[in-house]
């Protein structure tokens, strides 16, 4: 058994999440975590909502609420959505907790003490009418490089070049159209060049990373520039330095605070567990957590943060860059083992866009369809290694032809035939098993190794395809053996044997599919006469802030219970009732209905 950290991307709390978001980081990280737990590892799966930064400040201003009120609203929406999908976080928290503030400030101080944070004077834009800082992305103008008129202060979407707002020709505020004023302002920067060599050495030791991610990360090292980690903004974590702590106009940059969330959420989880140091088993680079592994799940636009910038922060905090230094108060910390990034999901051939209504929100989806139907689509056809298009026609086909007609049908006919003819799980008759019986049982048992290995290597598409291939074998077995024809009294023992074998296959296949389809796995477990928790589910719990801040909801759960990753013999004589279908067949008319909703 080893300690496995599943560090899952932090959704930004400025609106509900759509299925594109959860297909990238949410479902894959849950499938991985569930499997690793079932295989006996000690998993810590953490995340939360990312709640600071200018977009939330600006949106709150527009709505006439405080940023905290806005964040409260969407934190709750997102927590409910992720719970609805059955994502088994040990802790899903948020970045506005006092614990998070304290951990972020500790990391800032540690880096500062070691000399990896430097101060610089820069030109910042302010709005002449409000006196408030205008963030880069709210400044628009003409690109000085390609002449495109809609360039943003931080980047030109036409030529792709990174920009500084002061470079824009005819800069204007996207909020009210006025011309920004540029004033000198002091900020802190993370001295990435002083960490580049240590980063390079660490990247050289990475094994199993996708070659393009590794190459891309290494190429960045030569051009690393100091990166701003503070902003002119009131909404964020205060800067923990003398003379800065009490300034209301300067805050730690949202990217810096959010990426530390993996660590702060682990610490919060430990504090809530009653063993405040328990987080060290996943994080401490000394004896305690030396063998721990950390897997970071995110969309591909976030690779750089997790393969370069987050490791740089951790190296600097541990005192391992050009300037050396001592580990901060939390000690030397583990760097990521692997960065598991997904590609993009598009919707009916278009990019998801809330403003253009090319979107389906998680809660709207869950109001009309089952969570496992979406989880199945994401696992079987999601953007694991290629950009992938979600179409309603394909969703319908996968649900009806594979989930309902394949797996659902196998479950239903096996259990209902056994219930009707025996009322219980029948025994194997004394004549024993035939070659065909043994072949099916062997196929299904062998799948534990192959499916598990594929999930542990983040090849979930191949893993579920392998499980579904075994489902097809079991369906073929039933069709070949035709137990329904064995009606005579003398044929009944053979019928019982076939159904026993089929039910054993269903039970094992259900275990194999549990990481992907936890909701239906629990139902199948119960239809097989099982009791207790087979697939544990997350709970929403209202908690007090540990350090006196406002209360908030978290997602958490007891995942120590539930099925293990192994074949368990079915219990002869266990009563069976006629089953209800576990999956819903969808009417083809949903495709047109949904396309109409999309305005297509
Ligand atoms: Zn340009």
TrEMBL record:
Q: Which UniProt keywords apply?
A: Aminoacyl-tRNA synthetase, ATP-binding, Cytoplasm, Ligase, Metal-binding, Nucleotide-binding, Protein biosynthesis, Zinc
User: Does the keyword field hold Signal?
Assistant: no
Residues in Methionyl/Leucyl tRNA synthetase domain copies: 5-414
Specify the Methionyl-tRNA synthetase anticodon-binding domain's residue ranges.
Answer: 434-549
What's its catalytic activity? Answer: tRNA(Met) + L-methionine + ATP = L-methionyl-tRNA(Met) + AMP + diphosphate
- Per UniProt, the short sequence motif 'HIGH' region occupies residue numbers 11-21
Residues the entry annotates as binding ATP? 354
Question: Could you tell me what the cofactor note in this record states?
Answer: Binds 1 zinc ion per subunit.
Cellular localization per UniProt: Cytoplasm
Task: Cite a single GO MF annotation.
Answer: ATP binding
**EC number of this enzyme:** 6.1.1.10
Q: Where is this motif: 'KMSKS' region?
A: 351-355
Q: Where does Zn(2+) bind?
A: 143, 146, 156, 159
| Uppermost EC category | ligase
Could you mention a single GO BP entry for this protein?
methionyl-tRNA aminoacylation
Q: What is its main location?
A: cytoplasm
- Entry cofactors: Zn(2+)
Query: Which Gene Ontology cellular component annotation is one that this UniProt entry carries?
Result: cytosol
Quaternary state and interactors: Monomer.
Which NCBIfam families does UniProt cross-reference here?
A: metG
Q: Which family does it belong to?
A: Belongs to the class-I aminoacyl-tRNA synthetase family. MetG type 1 subfamily.
**What is this protein for, i.e. what is its function?**
Is required not only for elongation of protein synthesis but also for the initiation of all mRNA translation through initiator tRNA(fMet) aminoacylation.
What's the protein name?
Answer: Methionine--tRNA ligase
Q: What's the gene?
A: metG
């Amino acid at each position: 058994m080893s300690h496995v950290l599943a560090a899952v991307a932090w959704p930004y709390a400025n609106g509900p999440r759509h299925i594109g978001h959860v297909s990238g980081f949410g479902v894959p990280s849950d499938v991985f975590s569930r499997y690793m737990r079932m295989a006996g590892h000690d998993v810590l799966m953490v995340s939360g909502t990312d709640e600071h930064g200018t977009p939330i400040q600006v949106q709150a201003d527009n709505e006439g609420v405080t940023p905290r009120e806005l964040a409260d609203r969407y934190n709750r929406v997102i927590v409910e959505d992720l719970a609805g999908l059955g994502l088994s976080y040990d802790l899903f928290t948020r970045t506005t907790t006092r614990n998070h503030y304290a951990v972020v400030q500790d990391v800032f101080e540690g880096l500062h003490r070691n000399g990896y944070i430097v101060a610089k004077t820069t030109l910042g834009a302010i709005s002449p009418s409000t006196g408030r800082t205008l963030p880069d992305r709210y400044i628009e103008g003409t690109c000085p490089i390609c002449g495109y008129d809609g360039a943003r202060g931080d980047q030109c979407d036409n030529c792709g070049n990174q920009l500084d707002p002061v470079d824009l020709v005819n800069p204007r505020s996207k909020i009210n159209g006025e011309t920004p004023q540029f004033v000198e302002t002091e900020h802190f920067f993370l001295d990435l060049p002083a960490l580049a060599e240590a980063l390079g050495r660490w990247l050289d030791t990475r094994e199993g990373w996708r070659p393009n991610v590794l190459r891309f990360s290494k190429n960045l090292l030569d051009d690393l520039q100091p990166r701003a980690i503070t902003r002119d903004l009131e909404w964020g974590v205060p800067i923990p330095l003398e003379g800065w702590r009490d300034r209301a106009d300067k805050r730690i940059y949202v990217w810096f605070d959010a990426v530390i969330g993996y660590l702060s959420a682990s610490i919060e989880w430990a504090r809530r567990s009653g063993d405040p140091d328990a987080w060290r088993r996943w994080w401490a680079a000394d004896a305690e957590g030396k063998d721990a592994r950390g897997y970071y799940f995110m969309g591909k636009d976030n690779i750089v943060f997790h393969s370069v910038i987050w490791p740089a922060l951790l190296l600097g905090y541990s005192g391992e860059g050009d300037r050396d230094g001592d580990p901060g108060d939390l000690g030397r910390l583990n760097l990521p083992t692997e960065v598991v990034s997904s590609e993009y999901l598009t919707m009916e051939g278009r990019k998801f866009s809330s403003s253009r209504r090319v979107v389906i929100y998680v809660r709207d989806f869950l109001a009309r369809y089952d969570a496992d139907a979406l989880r199945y689509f994401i696992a079987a056809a999601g953007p694991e290694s290629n950009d992938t298009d979600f179409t309603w026609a394909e969703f319908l086909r996968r649900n009806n032809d594979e989930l309902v007609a394949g797996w659902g049908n196998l479950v239903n006919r096996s259990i209902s035939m056994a219930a009707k003819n025996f009322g219980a799980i029948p025994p194997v008759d004394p004549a024993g098993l035939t070659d065909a019986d043994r072949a099916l049982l062997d196929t299904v048992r062998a799948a534990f190794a192959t499916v598990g290995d594929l999930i542990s290597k983040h090849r979930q598409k191949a893993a579920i395809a392998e499980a579904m291939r075994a489902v097809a074998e079991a369906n073929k077995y039933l069709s070949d053996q035709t137990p329904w024809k064995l009606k005579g009294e003398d044929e009944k023992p053979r019928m019982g044997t076939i159904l026993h074998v089929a039910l054993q296959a269903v039970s094992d296949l259900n275990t194999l599919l549990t990481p992907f389809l936890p909701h239906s796995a629990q139902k199948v477990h119960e239809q097989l006469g099982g009791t207790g928790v087979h697939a544990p589910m997350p709970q929403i719990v209202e908690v007090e802030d540990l350090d006196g801040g406002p209360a908030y909801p978290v997602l958490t759960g007891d995942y120590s219970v539930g099925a293990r990753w192994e074949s368990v013999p079915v219990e002869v004589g266990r009563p069976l009732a006629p089953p209800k279908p576990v999956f819903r067949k969808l009417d083809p008319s949903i495709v047109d209905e949904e396309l109409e909703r999309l305005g297509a």
